[in-house]
């Protein structure tokens, strides 16, 4: 049933946008003294090899993070992101790509905590091994959607909830909204970040509309970088919809999106949306 493995996609254009935005939100949260929790409801394996068979089946990172490596004109936010990817790699070689748990771990402070959920047995075990004996992280092999009921509000009353489901099963869209409704009823002031793919069938449109209906304080960012394949399918781009975003986020993203789209574009019609 759990067919999705993020190892096939690590470092692709969606990861670039996703992890860059995640890092910036955390950096903003670090500006306030009070500790916070990060709940990653769909954590994946935590770290990925770009030399593995998985990563090289389609080589998606070539049209993602690899397009930023070696550029000497990156805007500061993208430089922050690339620097983080770089410190995960030894001796200047680009062989590893950090998943969201590692992006979070390397950005939070000693007083902050992370709670990571991953259902796939193999990826759960890899994640648990990766964070073995890490006092700030707790790993669970259970449903990340359901987890919010037990964990919200976090004890520190500050938190970021990062929801990154695979959407291979269409019911994930409805589950996101149900989990958000419930989460907001328990912890209205939390920062909720939902990632979504842009597919030809446009399933993300009602998702974003439903999120806007849940909260007036919603910021949506997306990039479209790729055309449909010859059969009319494919992930054309991706986006993140954020409830209770940091007030600076929109302006920060405005400054990098033209550069990012240009760097990741695979066709002339590549574009971004931010509203
Ligand atoms: C897109 S990947 C996560 C990637 C990761 N967030 C990152 O950015 O590196 C989605 C993950 O969710 C897991 N998953 C699917 N349904 C789940 C659920 N209900 N609860 C927890 N994990 C789930 C999958 O096994 C997969 O590893």
TrEMBL record:
One of its GO terms (biological process) is rRNA base methylation. Signal peptide: none annotated. S-adenosyl-L-methionine binds at residues 19, 42, 100, 118, 143-144, 164. Keywords: Methyltransferase, RNA-binding, rRNA processing, S-adenosyl-L-methionine, Transferase. The active site is at residue 164. It catalyses: adenosine(2030) in 23S rRNA + S-adenosyl-L-methionine = N(6)-methyladenosine(2030) in 23S rRNA + S-adenosyl-L-homocysteine + H(+). Gene3D superfamilies: Vaccinia Virus protein VP39. Pfam families: RsmJ (PF04378). Its EC number is 2.1.1.266. InterPro entries: DNA_methylase_N6_adenine_CS, RlmJ, SAM-dependent_MTases_sf. Monomer. Specifically methylates the adenine in position 2030 of 23S rRNA. Belongs to the RlmJ family. HAMAP family: 23SrRNA_methyltr_J. This is Ribosomal RNA large subunit methyltransferase J.
């Amino acid at each position: 049933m759990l067919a999705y493995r993020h190892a096939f996609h690590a470092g692709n254009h969606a990861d670039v946008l996703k992890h860059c935005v995640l890092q910036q939100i955390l950096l903003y949260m670090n500006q306030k003294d009070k500790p916070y929790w990060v709940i990653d409801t769909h954590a994946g394996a935590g770290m990925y090899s770009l030399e593995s068979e998985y990563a090289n089946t389609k080589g998606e990172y070539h049209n993602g993070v690899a397009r930023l490596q070696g550029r000497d004109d990156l805007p500061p936010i993208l430089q922050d992101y690339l620097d983080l990817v770089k410190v995960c790699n030894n001796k200047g070689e680009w062989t590893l790509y950090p998943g969201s748990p590692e992006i979070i771990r390397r950005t939070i402070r000693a007083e902050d905590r992370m709670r990571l959920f991953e259902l796939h047995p193999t990826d759960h075990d890899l994640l648990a091994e990766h964070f073995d004996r890490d006092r700030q992280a707790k790993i669970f092999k259970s449903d990340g959607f359901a987890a919010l009921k037990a964990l919200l509000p976090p004890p520190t009353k500050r938190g970021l909830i990062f929801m990154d489901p695979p959407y291979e099963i269409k019911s994930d869209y409805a589950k996101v909204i149900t989990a958000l409704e419930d989460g907001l009823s328990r912890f209205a002031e939390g920062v909720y970040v939902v990632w979504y793919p842009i597919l030809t069938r446009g399933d993300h449109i009602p998702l974003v509309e439903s999120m806007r209906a849940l909260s007036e304080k919603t910021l949506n960012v997306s990039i479209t970088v790729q055309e449909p394949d010859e059969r009319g399918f494919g992930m054309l781009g991706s986006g993140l919809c954020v409830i209770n975003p940091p007030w600076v986020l929109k302006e920060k993203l405005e400054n990098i999106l033209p550069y990012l789209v240009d760097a990741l574009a695979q066709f002339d019609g590549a574009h971004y949306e931010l509203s």
